[in-house]
UniProtKB/TrEMBL annotation, chain A:
<keyword id="KW-0067">ATP-binding</keyword>
<keyword id="KW-0813">Transport</keyword>
<feature type="domain" description="ABC transporter">
    <location>
        <begin position="2"/>
        <end position="241"/>
    </location>
</feature>
<dbReference type="GO" id="GO:0016887">
    <property type="term" value="F:ATP hydrolysis activity"/>
</dbReference>
<dbReference type="Pfam" id="PF00005">
    <property type="entry name" value="ABC_tran"/>
</dbReference>
<dbReference type="InterPro" id="IPR017871">
    <property type="entry name" value="ABC_transporter-like_CS"/>
</dbReference>
<dbReference type="InterPro" id="IPR050086">
    <property type="entry name" value="MetN_ABC_transporter-like"/>
</dbReference>
<dbReference type="GO" id="GO:0005524">
    <property type="term" value="F:ATP binding"/>
</dbReference>
<keyword id="KW-0547">Nucleotide-binding</keyword>
Automatic annotation (TrEMBL), chain B:
<feature type="transmembrane region" description="Helical">
    <location>
        <begin position="126"/>
        <end position="145"/>
    </location>
</feature>
<protein>
    <submittedName>
        <fullName>ABC transporter permease</fullName>
    </submittedName>
</protein>
<feature type="transmembrane region" description="Helical">
    <location>
        <begin position="58"/>
        <end position="81"/>
    </location>
</feature>
<comment type="similarity">
    <text>Belongs to the binding-protein-dependent transport system permease family. CysTW subfamily.</text>
</comment>
<keyword id="KW-1003">Cell membrane</keyword>
<dbReference type="InterPro" id="IPR051322">
    <property type="entry name" value="AA_ABC_Transporter_Permease"/>
</dbReference>
<dbReference type="Pfam" id="PF00528">
    <property type="entry name" value="BPD_transp_1"/>
</dbReference>
<dbReference type="GO" id="GO:0048473">
    <property type="term" value="P:D-methionine transmembrane transport"/>
</dbReference>
<keyword id="KW-0813">Transport</keyword>
Length: 339, 223
């Protein structure tokens, strides 16, 4: 549905050319939600603006639903843009128009008939849950409500694709959750393909099927959400994972614990979350597992459990225990102490 | 007959005529100045670097013209463009003769006020509409001008008040008006009462225009 092929974007600045996006490839299939995560300045905002050509990529091609939009002349590009909705961190509503008009004006400008406009505005106001606010002005709404209006405005054009540019970054955690629930609902019930950018790992966790980690304009790691949460490879990915769960222990602590046994992170996915494997380990082998930290992360497509244990016992017994766990579908990762 | 009645009997017709002249001059020149100033304001906003129709040459040229005209004091401008006025409307005197310099004086001022009003509109909203595939003319009308309405009204209020000030000098070319009345009778002939009366009317006029402008802007503003 959305294909970005070798996208590069250069800007001319006073100190010469700056590459904001370097050779990025993204492929979002119909009905999926993909997320790009990165720190500010990573180039993710430029990247998402390349999708609807608010920024023209210096190199590379953009395909939306099989049509290459990068080579379209402006009038045809406008038609293509009708099918690409976009929501923003700053909501970008008309301050001087009511909630109703904020959704109706773009439809009127796109040439829809009055009756059709009315039907659509009412339909999408109901979907975002703001039917009773249609006469209010944006200044009378909370941040979350404003974002709902912006979502309704985007949906009212019945797009195939929705782009979200840090849509929840200006909202408090509770409101963020409710907006994410709404996006999830849109994705499931209306089947709209979503590409979002964010710097919040919980956004990825809650609604994304596939994740791209971006740093310095490049995608440094990409994977399905479940694989990324269980087997993060890049340091930046690990840092992001730390923001939603305590994954790291200090190396001093690990060194102290290493004297009596291994410190290991166990990752449980799917089936293995249901089995009392640690109890079995202590029965079968001469080891005593001590749980240091534990958490469970609910992803869009599954559950991932993380336990950091201190396995006290002889080296060969510890090794045998770890092998047993791996055979039962548990991911293991030795945590290194100070060397 | 009381002194007041005597004064009104003697001066009311003259003051009345002056008020009408002032209204004519302000009304007609404001209309033309708006017709030139608002598009000019839109032009310098849209041709700015980074905007929809960015064009360095057009941007700098219109900026230069606005600055040149705005540097010339009205009294000088009035005489400076006499040949142009004559060519355009066939006369250089009376209300008709003063409209041309008043428009030329006010239009660039309105353009500058429009520029600052339009620049207040958040770029994000324009971007959102561009992303929806809406054409630039539609965005100018339904987003840019709509969102800037409160500031545009305030800007036009300021221009109207300054236009009233400029009409005082219109007497130089025999166009009459309140300012001219105060000058000729009040100052040159030392009829102090006439001066007070016209100044009082001007104060009321400016006050009401400003209040109407403020109220209208407040009503258009929704935040």
């Amino acid at each position: 549905m959305i294909v970005l092929e070798n996208i590069t974007k250069e800007f001319n600045s006073k100190s010469g050319k700056v590459k904001a996006v370097k050779n990025v490839n993204i492929h979002v299939k119909k009905g999926e939600t993909h997320g790009v995560i990165g720190y500010s300045g990573a180039g993710k905002s430029t990247l998402i603006r390349c999708v609807n050509l608010l920024e023209k990529p210096t190199e590379g091609k953009v395909f939306i639903n099989g049509v290459e939009t990068t080579s379209l002349p402006l009038p045809k590009l406008r038609v293509a843009r009708n099918k690409i909705g976009m929501i923003f961190q700053g909501f970008n509503l008309l301050k001087t128009a009511t909630v109703y008009d904020n959704i109706a004006i773009p439809l009127k400008l796109l040439g829809y008939k009055k009756e059709e406009v009315k039907i659509r505005v009412e339909k999408y106001l109901e979907i975002v849950g703001l039917t009773d606010k249609h006469k209010n002005y944006p200044s009378q709404l909370s941040g979350g409500q404003k974002q709902r209006v912006a979502i309704a405005r985007a949906l009212a054009q019945e797009p195939e694709v929705l782009l979200s540019d840090e849509a929840t970054s200006a909202l408090d955690p509770e409101t963020t959750d409710s907006i994410l629930d709404l996006l999830l609902k849109i994705n499931k019930e209306l089947g709209i393909t979503i590409l979002l950018i964010t710097h919040e790992m919980n956004v990825i966790q809650k609604i994304c099927d596939h994740v791209y980690v971006m740093e310095n304009g490049e995608v440094v790691e990409q994977n399905t959400a479940i694989n990324l949460f269980t087997k993060p490879a890049h340091l930046t990915t690990k840092k992001f994972l730390n923001t939603i769960s305590q994954r790291n222990l200090s190396s001093t602590l690990i060194s102290q614990l290493n004297v009596t046994g291994a410190v290991t992170r166990l990752t449980f996915v799917g089936e293995s979350t249901g089995k009392p494997l640690l109890a079995e380990v202590s029965k079968k082998f001469n080891v005593q597992p001590n749980i240091l930290t534990a958490n469970i992360i609910e992803l869009k497509n599954g559950i991932v459990g993380n336990i950091v244990i201190h396995l006290i016992g002889d080296k060969d017994q510890v090794q045998a225990a770890l092998t047993f766990l791996e055979e039962h579908g548990v991911g293991t990762e030795d945590l290194e102490g100070q060397s | 007959m009381s002194r007041f009645e005597q004064f009104t009997n003697q001066w009311l017709p003259i003051i009345g005529k002056s008020v009408i002249e002032t209204f004519q001059m302000v009304g007609i020149s404001l209309l033309f100045a708006v017709l030139i100033g608002i598009p000019l304001g839109i032009l310098i906003v849209l041709t700015r670097p980074g905007q929809a129709l960015q064009n360095k040459f057009l941007y700098q040229l219109s900026n230069l013209i606005i600055n040149i005209v705005r540097s010339i004091p009205f009294i000088i401008l009035l005489f400076f463009i006499l040949p142009f006025t004559k060519h355009l409307v066939g006369t250089t005197i009376g209300v008709k003769g003063v409209i041309v310099p008043l428009v030329i004086y006010t239009a660039p001022y309105i353009a500058r006020l429009m520029e600052s009003a339009l620049l207040e509109v958040e770029n994000g909203v324009i971007e959102a509409y561009t992303a929806m595939g809406i054409s630039t003319p539609a965005i100018i009308w339904h987003v840019l001008l709509r969102e800037a309405r409160p500031s545009i009204v305030l800007g036009l209020t300021i221009s109207t008040v300054s236009l009233i000030g400029a009409t005082a000098m219109a007497g130089m070319v025999g166009a009459g008006g309140l300012g001219d009345l105060a000058y000729r009778f009040g100052h040159l002939r030392y009829e102090v009462d006439v001066m007070y009366a016209t100044v009082f009317i001007l104060i009321i006029l400016v006050q009401s225009i400003q209040s109407i402008g403020n109220r209208l802007a407040a009503r258009l503003k929704k935040d």
